[in-house]
Amino acid sequence: MGNRQYNLLAPRQCEGCGKQFQPQRRDQAYHSQACKQTAYYKRTKRNKFLLRNALVLPVLSLFPGIGLLDRAFEEQGFTVVRGPDLLWGDDIRDFHPQQGHFGGIIGGPPCQAFSRLRYLVEYNGYQTAPNLIPEFERCVSEAQPAWFIMENVPEAPLPVVPGYQVHSQLLNNRKHGGGTQSRTRRISFGTRDGRRLFVPEMPEPEEWTPAVCASGGVKPGVDRSRTPKANELGYKTRAAFEKMRRSQGLPEDFELPSFTVAGAVKAVGNGVPLPLGRAIARAVKLAMSASGEYVS
């Protein structure tokens, strides 16, 4: 009989005691049963701490932009720490949040890859932004918060993070006190024990206006009784900015003095409507209340 050759697996770090060991199986994460039990105890203790402090520890905002969702959460009593954003010259791929420092994470990764308006972006000669949902998932996995909210377009996939159960729903700004703008977003809520968000609906106004768009407004003089053509969209004017400001629920004195008009239109158009953000923040506070009761 020929001699069999066995390839040893590379040494790895035990997830229980932290020491290097020689695994016997590819899926072996602990070098003894005692280490496995120790790791389970530490993980359970950490999760209980995070759950007790889910509304006390700061909230990390990823892809904050000009901070419209952050502003809504701050108005509801959350302390928000803003993470990196390309708008301010930072790159999420260089960011690694530490575990145990944040009660929750909120954010809306760039969504052009899944937006129905991506063809308009390409029509105007621009490339669609890369899909950064995997970076959002990575940051949640590294930070291990008690909960997270990912906001995106309706066609976006749900985030997948090991150890978290995610429930998703479509929320329209009109149904949550946001005025006439019809802007639907996919809100994915992740927790370890499968809690859900309950966001009460309100009566919709009779008047209807379309969703604002980061690519700009409708060309002045176009007949608004019909659907605008592609070459009649994407106008970044002062009038477009003022209309977006009202549609997004921002106060009349809200300005972005360091931005060009085109930059301000894009930044406001990319944000979450302030009334919808408030409704989401209130729902998170209810779901993660100190009572720890399951909210369906």
Report on this structure.
With 296 residues, the chain is of the alpha/beta class. It has a domain at 53-211 and 274-287: Rossmann fold. The chain contains seven helices and twelve strands. The strands form four sheets. The protein has a six-stranded mixed sheet, with helices on one face. The protein has a two-stranded antiparallel sheet with strand order 1-2. Strands 8-10 form a two-stranded parallel ribbon. The protein is elongated and about 80 Å long.
Rg calculated over all Cα atoms: 23 Å
Please trace the helix and strand order, writing H or E for each element. EEHEHEEHHEEEEEEEHHH
Can you count the helices? 7
Give the strand line-up of the largest sheet. 4-3-5-6-9-7
Instruction: Give a quick account of the main beta sheet: strands, pairing sense, barrel closure.
Output: 6 strands, mixed
Question: Any low-confidence stretches, pLDDT <50, length ≥5?
Answer: 291-296
Strand and helix layout:
Layout: E1 12-13, E2 20-21, H1 33-52, E3 59-62, H2 68-75, E4 80-82, E5 104-107, H3 118-123, H4 133-143, E6 147-152, E7 165-172, E8 181-182, E9 184-191, E10 209-210, E11 217-218, E12 233-235, H5 238-247, H6 261-270, H7 274-287
Parallel strand pairs: 3-4, 3-5, 5-6, 8-10
Antiparallel strand pairs: 1-2, 6-9, 7-9, 11-12
Helix pairs in contact: 2-7, 5-6
Summary, kept brief:
The protein has 296 residues and is α/β, with parallel strands linked by helices. It has helices at 33-52, 68-75, 118-123, 133-143, 238-247, 261-270, 274-287; strands at 12-13, 20-21, 59-62, 80-82, 104-107, 147-152, 165-172, 181-182, 184-191, 209-210, 217-218, 233-235.
